[in-house]
Amino acid sequence: MTNTLSPVKRVAISTGGGDAPGLNAVIRAVVLSGLKRGWEIYGIRDGFHGLLLPERYPDGGLIRMTRDTVRGITHLGGTILGTSNRNNPMQFLVKMPDGTTQEVDRTDEIVRAFGLHEIDALITVGGDGSLAIANVLMQKGLRVISVPKTIDNDLDKTDVTFGFDTAVAFATEALDRLHTTAASHGRVMVVEVMGRYAGWIALNSGVSGSADVILIPEIPYDINKVIEKIKQRDDTGARFTLVMVAEGAKPKDGHISVVEHESGRAERLGGIGEKVAHEISSFSGKETRVVVLGHLLRGGSPTAFDRLIALRLGAAAIRALEENQSGVMVALDPPQVKYVPIPEAIGKMKFVPVDCDTVQTARDLGISFGD
């Protein structure tokens, strides 16, 4: 939305949720673009912890960003500001005198901290959880611009998110490496990747890496169909099989595998790779191994594609403030970057269309989805 707002002089940037390759590129673009306009840019440590828990930081949790601060960071993974997917400020866990914990809404404290430090606007970089926080802060009067971030590529209002291409590239390389060891031993290799409730990483890397079976949340699988595919390969002389599994994949009439659920944060998925591997070994008799790529998908240098997207979105966030925008998410809409009202950007995930061309291509190549 566009309002009549006072001129921007000071801007703070935070990175929240799980890290993703490209975060540092966003930070660099925000800082350099802001400094070019004569603005002061500040970085908040570890999501919003730098404002809510300043006593934990030698620098007070809020640092002045300069050209020297962001020099040479575009190619680096992670985030120089730090991040956190614990202690959502809307459900902040506070230890009580009796030793129990209680959820407290501390978003008013964030708004007050911005006033105390005379900061005019917030650029928050994060996924669906960070967008929900940004929406509340916006409703409480804070000038907010959001930059979408997730390796899972499941945010609905942007064409693609940075970090996704890097994750797919790494998962594809992992399949390339596992192909040779699986062929040498005649094994079934089950590879579990992140993605939460969407199968974008598993689908794109699975097709690119010549997986034989791809299991994604959008297509519930029948383990008997998976076993059938493995036996078909054995009958044709291919003694090995590569199975790519999204962490949110689930069997027909079954449930998503959850390994942890904590108050104030999203449930942690996992364990489906072990489950699938155990069933394959039990039902087929094939020697089966499982590899969980996990946080390896989040680390390392971003690809050129992700660096460019991140730099474009960071610069666009500064332009949005200059154009008197607030309460919007900058989103990639090739060949442009557009502004999407934050309320429209939350609450809806982008799932893999089961009839999309990549799925059709996979089926034409003989890849099984277990259906």
Explain this structure:
By secondary structure, the chain is of the alpha/beta class. The protein has helices spanning 23-36, 49-52, 67-70, 107-116, 128-139, 164-185, 200-208, 223-235, 272-284, 304-322, 342-345, 357-364, and strands at residues 10-15, 40-44, 62-65, 92-95, 101-104, 121-126, 144-148, 188-193, 213-215, 241-246, 258-260, 268-269, 288-292, 328-333, 336-341. The chain has two domains: 10-162 and 302-334, Rossmann fold; 167-298 and 353-364, Rossmann fold, CATH 3.40.50. 36% of the residues lie in helices and 19% in strands. β11 (258-260) and β12 form a beta hairpin. The model has no long low-confidence stretch (mean pLDDT 93).
| Mean pLDDT rating | 93
Radius of gyration: 22 Å
CATH topology of the largest domain: Rossmann fold
Name the helix and strand elements from N-terminus to C-terminus, one letter apiece.
EHEHEHEEHEHEHEHEHEEEHEHEEHH
Number of domains: 2
Q: Strands of the largest sheet, in order across it?
A: 3-2-1-6-7-14-15
Q: What structural class do the secondary elements suggest?
A: alpha/beta
Query: Per DSSP, what share of the residues sits in E-state strands of 2 or more residues?
Result: 15-25%
Supply the number of helical segments: 12
